[in-house]
Amino acid sequence: MSDRAVRVLPAGRAALLVECDGLDEVLALHDALAGSAPDGVVELVPAARTLLVALDPARLPLESAENWVRRTARDRGSIDDGRAGAPGGAGAPPAGASSAADDRMADAVIEVDYRGEDLLDLAAVLDVTPEHLVARHVAAHWRVAFIGFAPGFGYLVADDWPFDVPRLDVARTRVPPGAVGLAGAFSGAYPRESPGGWRLIGRTDAVLWDPAADPPAALLPGRGVRFREATR
């Protein structure tokens, strides 16, 4: 990633908004920044084409933070890409992080009952058997690319996921909590009831959003995720 590939903009007095060419650039820069974060970085918040760098300006002035971001973007080619599951990579906390932070970023294992209402139709659309679709979903090593749409809703991506899944022509007005779905290159699980146009392939009882927990979201950006077929 060259310095020209990112655009760094102030976002108020305590944050920078980094615009990238696409999600791959966002994830790569997120990993590089997470692995070299200086004192004063409060949070890194990735999205599909942007990365918000939240700061404590009393410890890290905006100008210094911008220089760090631009330098990291220029040097990223010499930094471990940190794809999901690689040591020191996706979502890895900076050196010296607590064991609690390590636990938060360890792979989440989500058990799924793969009897979603769109499973059979989607398998036909993709020209595979339902069993093959489920097997590929379970075998993939997913990663939380970013949080969006609803609190705790993680957009998951995987390098070893081969399908581009079309959304429903007409979105549902009600998707139950725990529904596991696919759309485009993403997978995800609905943390609470909401509308949605993703193809539903299963359901989980995992608690994905708990306002009383710290952090409230079970799936933090950068965290690895494994799906496991639940025993019926």
UniProtKB/TrEMBL annotation:
Keywords: ATP-binding, Hydrolase, Nucleotide-binding. Residues 6-219 form the Carboxyltransferase domain. It holds the Pfam family CT_C_D. Residues 76-100 are annotated as: Disordered. GO terms for molecular function: hydrolase activity. Signal peptide: none annotated. The keyword Calcium does not apply. The keyword Nucleotide-binding applies. This is Allophanate hydrolase subunit 1. It comes from Agromyces tropicus. Transmembrane segments: none annotated.
